[in-house]
Structures are given as structure tokens and as C-alpha cells.
Design a protein that fits this description.
Order of helices and strands of chain A: EEEHEEEEHEHEHEHEHEH
CATH architecture of the largest domain in chain A: 3-Layer(aba) Sandwich
Oligomer: homodimer
Strand content of chain A: 25-35%
Distance between the termini of chain A: 29 Å
Number of domains of chain A: 2
Largest interface: A-B, 31 and 30 residues
Number of helices of chain A: 7
CATH class of the largest domain in chain A: Alpha Beta
CATH superfamily of the largest domain in chain A: SPOUT methyltransferase, trefoil knot domain
Chain lengths: 234, 234
């Protein structure tokens, strides 16, 4: 795949690129008149002629839409407890790769202090880079909540599954199939508090023990999301 | 968990540590007479008194066995096509974390040149470090074969599953359950050759399409092994 850029705003036949992408244009020595390919993270790839390259933004003219893709199926929202950045980075990348519709980060009761900040911009940049590298041209919606309760209140889902050591074996439970959309919840690396577990239970969550070993949060994330996806795939 | 070491050889009540571990002893400024904890990667944790610390090896005296664990269940052998080291490192670490019994690396027909070397020692060191970090005290058996055919000939398994984009949906197939031991095969990042696919087919492999997106080899590895494990868990 040739180099692909991320276009942050489309207005009629005009395309705007942000500071980060403008920096990438400089790196590849792009000049006005160059034709490049860019995705909007909403399933489209455009061919765009660069018109004006400034210090902080770039403007282009849309030549044509060269690809248009439906949103990733099935519809899965992944919830994850805020953890140290190195783990979060991995989780954001894997969300794009696995094709979740939304990634909801919440500050868990036991989240490591310092990993509790809202870092949506960092998540977004990471997701954009992951999107360019994978062939997935849908950017997950990303949001941050100060606690799990608020995060769950704002989400809409039919089935709720949770990675938890004391849970049940997943295959027996998932083979019957879940109802879309599915919310898949992984705690922070430090785990869930009792209060959070109670909250999830009250909302009818299915607790799944993904492995006989203790999995790292990012491994549990991949496994749970893959189970969720496959359980509702048509 | 306190710092744990890896003891490479046990002979009656004498424990030998290799050069790498001897280096670790130096780092933590261990001296003769110190009592440390070490695992043999075969399910045991020992309390050991250090006796003699040399440049390239260390000798100790076993004080007692403080933990003894059965091998990880269920019995899954993971096969993986040799790929660039950064990916292989991750795969080796995840093998330990997920608790596979054996990890078989094979040089795939399409394996990236340079990733085709037998690097068992590097794999082994990585696995030992991963073992120390996780709570899994079983080291997977590790082997390397110059091609998939030889690798499969030397392995014993009852069920054979393969990660492959053109395969079937996993949940429907796995819910019926597999028969232990299971061999789970992931190609190199570059994929399988037609000849390799034919070989797998002739051996009765079940081809599974793990995702509607194209997964990276290391993501496919985690998902396939997790499916294999859960499919035969009692």
C-alpha cells in the first residue's frame, strides 16, 4: 500500500489536514500540486490534490473518492480500564486492528495513579497511525470517563461481557451467541474493585475466565474482543 | 512476588545457574550464603542457598522445594512461522503467558529471509524472562524446524487448527470441542504458501478465519491459542 494520510476535515471538495499530518507532508517533501491518498477514518479513501501547505495545516482539493467501505461488523464496543501508557498504546492499536466500533477508556477504581488522565488526543493519534498501517479505514470512536459507572450509562449495548479470573469458561457461554451490539469490558492492569464487579453484575454482565493463567491486561483485551466479535459474526 | 531466578540444572541437592543468571546475581549483588528463590521452568520453585559465584556460573545448595505445580492444562502446542525478531519475541512471551506446552517455530516457505535462522537460544532466554515476570513456572518446550512438514511430522496432536483468512468461523467449529492435544498453527507474517496449505489440508487441519480484518501474525497467534485452549478446557 502506498503511503496514506489522514484527512481530518472534509467540506464539499476541500480537504483539511491537521498539524501532525502537515508535518508528515514535510517529511515526504510534498508540494502543492502533488496528488496523495488520504482516509477520513470513516471508511473512505480519497485522492486529493494538495493546494496550500502551511506550518500548522494543509489544504487540498478532493479529486475523487477511490474507496468506500461499510463500518466494521459486528458492532463491538470495547471498554478498558485506564492503565500505563505503554499498555494503553497497545490496546488502542489492537482496537483498530480488530475493528471495534468504539473504544471507551474509564478510570478504574484501582487504576494506577497517573494513568487516570484523559488522554484522548494521544489515543487518537495512536489510532490514526495504526489505521494507516493496517488496512482498516475506520477509526473507532474514542471516549474517556472518570469511572466505569458513567461509561456504562453512556453506552448502548445488548450484551455485556467481562474478562474476570473468577468467571465462567467462555466457549460454553458464547457458543449460544450474544446479541449485538456487544460491550466487552477489561479492567485496568490492577483489576476491578468489588464495587465495580457489583456494578457489572447488576447490569447483567457475563463474567468470563479467559485463561487458567493470569493474563496481562492487553492479552485479555485481545482475547475478549476476539471472542465478542466471533460470537456475533454472521 | 520477590525476585525469582532460573536454575538451569539440578543434581541431587546441588543447583547450577548459567552465565546469564550469574550476571543477574551480580546485578543484585548476591553473595555466598544468600538465600534466593529460583524456578526450574518445570513447575517447581526452590529455596536455594548460594555457595559459589564464579564468572560464568553459580552453584547453590537446595534448601527446600517451596512450590510444585502440575503442567499447564490443556495441552496445546503452538506452531508459528519464523518472522522478524520483534514479532517472534512477542510470540515467545505470549506463549509463556498463555501457558502452551510447546512452541514449535518453523521456517515457512514465505518467511522473511533473515528470520529463518534457528535462534532457539534467543527464544529460550526470552521465555525465561517472561516466566520470571508472569506467575507461570512452566517453560514451554521449544524447537525449530527448517520447514512446516518436518515440524508437523515430529509433533503429536489429535486436533490441528490453523489461522487462515479464507477459513471458517471459529466459534461454530470450536464449540463442538477439540480433542487434546491440540496443535495450533499460525503462519509467518508473510502467510502460508499454497504448498503449506495443501499439506495442512492433507493432515486434516481445520482452517479458521479469526477476524474480518487482516490480523497481524502476533494478534492471530494470541487469538488462535486462546481459542484452542478454551476449546479443550475441562
Amino acid at each position: 500500500m502506498p503511503h496514506i494520510f489522514y484527512v481530518s476535515e472534509i467540506s464539499e471538495d476541500t480537504a483539511f489536514f491537521d498539524e501532525e499530518e502537515t508535518h508528515h507532508f514535510r517529511v515526504v517533501r510534498a508540494v502543492p500540486g502533488d496528488i496523495i491518498e488520504a482516509t477520513d477514518g470513516k471508511g473512505r479513501i480519497y485522492r486529493i490534490e494538495l493546494v496550500e501547505l502551511k506550518k500548522r495545516w494543509t489544504r487540498g482539493r478532493i479529486v475523487e473518492i477511490i474507496k468506500e467501505e461499510a463500518p466494521p461488523e459486528p458492532e463491538v464496543t470495547a471498554f478498558v480500564g485506564a492503565s500505563r501508557w505503554q499498555r494503553m498504546k497497545f490496546v488502542v492499536e489492537k482496537s483498530v486492528e480488530l475493528g471495534v466500533r468504539s473504544l471507551v477508556v474509564f478510570k478504574g477504581d484501582l487504576s494506577h495513579p497517573g494513568s487516570e488522565k484523559e488522554e484522548l488526543d494521544k489515543y487518537r493519534r495512536t489510532a490514526i497511525e495504526a489505521m494507516k498501517q493496517s488496512r482498516n479505514i475506520w477509526l473507532p470512536r474514542m471516549s474517556f470517563y472518570p469511572n466505569l459507572e458513567e461509561a456504562l450509562q453512556k453506552a448502548s449495548y445488548e450484551s455485556l461481557i467481562v474478562a474476570e479470573m473468577t468467571g465462567e469458561k467462555p466457549l460454553q457461554k458464547l457458543c449460544a451467541g450474544l446479541v449485538q451490539p456487544v460491550a466487552a469490558v477489561v479492567g485496568p492492569q490492577e483489576g476491578f474493585s468489588e464495587k465495580e464487579k457489583e456494578l457489572l453484575k447488576n447490569r447483567g454482565a457475563l463474567f468470563l475466565n479467559l485463561s487458567q493463567n493470569i493474563l496481562r491486561m492487553e492479552t485479555a483485551f485481545i482475547v475478549l474482543v476476539a471472542f465478542a466479535m466471533n460470537s456475533v459474526r454472521k
